[in-house]
Design brief:
Keywords: Cell membrane, Membrane, Transmembrane, Transmembrane helix, Transport. This protein is mostly helical. It has helices at 2-29, 33-54, 60-87, 92-103, 107-118, 123-149, 159-163, 166-179, 186-210, 221-245, 249-258, 265-273, 278-306. It is 80% helix and 0% strand.
């Protein structure tokens, strides 16, 4: 119990404290959300990805193992969400948003800061989360966008959106610099590290601002099933795949924790774009983020016991 309390105090409380500060400041000062979002997308996220990859110790076989895990978990979750939507006889628009809410998670603004706090003394854990985040970005603009657009007969893979994602190029550069052991002069490395260090606070303040104006009403069966799928079924699925692959240690901990993060804001964004139950999607993102304060704490605790 003492360990559980320490996780809540040392990891989860700092995350939600910054979320709260972000929400409060946005209500008082009315941030320019577009500018904040662009700063994260084009500066902070790519920089923190480059730094973590450049400093990582992951081998090609380990990267292949992580990739295999992510692919199988995605296929399992996607299949479960599809079967549930069919079984509940959801209409096409609700089914699309429901499936996205289960499969897509907030691996960037929420997941990476949490991983940085959990694995402060072990950068490999944060590097695993970066691989998860890259995979999530790919399925967001393929599976996620196709799901949402299919309700209007436009279910095509958006390769253009993937190629416009700056983190893809940060990932490639990170691996190139790491693979060829290219030295970076101190006068360049220092500002790069400073930007990377600022990511955690900026990401959480921005996420807090994004959920500053909650609109909570009309909770449905699909809403609760979506929460259950994202916060409970997803970690259990990850646990099964980890056992299947025989993964252990820090890698197993990082993958298990990464599976428990709340719903992605992109699922709400796609619902808004294609008018697919946008209120349901926005509420689900907010509530899953709040409830994850409990579920992610439990998963972090379980990861330390199991691995």
């Amino acid at each position: 119990m003492a360990v559980l309390f320490q996780i809540l105090l040392q990891i989860i409380f700092p995350v939600f404290f910054l979320l709260g500060v972000g929400a409060l400041l946005h209500r008082l000062l009315q941030f320019d959300m577009k500018t904040l979002s662009r700063l994260l997308t084009y500066l902070f996220l790519p920089t923190v990805i480059f730094v973590n990859i450049y400093q990582n110790d992951m081998t090609p076989s380990l990267l292949l193992e992580i990739g295999g895990f992510l692919l199988i978990q995605f296929l399992l979750l996607g299949s479960l969400a599809h079967v549930t939507a069919k079984g509940m006889k959801m209409d096409k628009k609700l089914a699309a948003t429901f499936k996205n809410s289960v499969v897509l998670n907030n691996s960037g603004n929420f997941g990476l800061p949490v991983s940085q706090l959990v694995f402060q003394a072990n950068p490999v854990g944060a590097s695993v989360q970066i691989m998860v985040m890259m995979f999530q970005n790919i399925i967001t603009y393929t599976y996620g966008l196709m799901n949402a657009a299919s309700t209007e007969g436009k279910g095509t893979m958006n390769l253009k959106e993937i190629l416009k994602t700056p983190i893809l190029y940060a990932l490639v550069l990170g691996f190139l610099f790491y693979g060829f052991q290219i030295p970076i002069p101190g006068f360049i490395w220092t500002p790069i590290e400073n930007i990377a260090d600022a990511f955690l606070a900026v990401a959480l303040l921005t996420l807090g601002a994004q959920v500053a104006y909650p609109k909570l009403e009309n909770f449905s069966a699909a809403f609760f099933l979506g929460l259950t799928g994202r916060l409970i079924v997803a970690p259990l699925t990850a646990l099964a795949v980890i056992s299947l692959f025989g993964i252990d240690g820090t890698i197993a901990q990082a993958l298990f924790i990464a599976s428990a993060f709340p719903m992605s804001r992109n699922s709400a964004q796609f619902a808004l774009m294609y008018d697919n139950y946008q209120e349901y999607a926005a509420q689900a993102v907010l509530i899953s983020t709040l409830i994850s304060s409990v579920t992610v704490t439990i998963v972090i605790y379980a990861s330390r016991l199991l691995f």
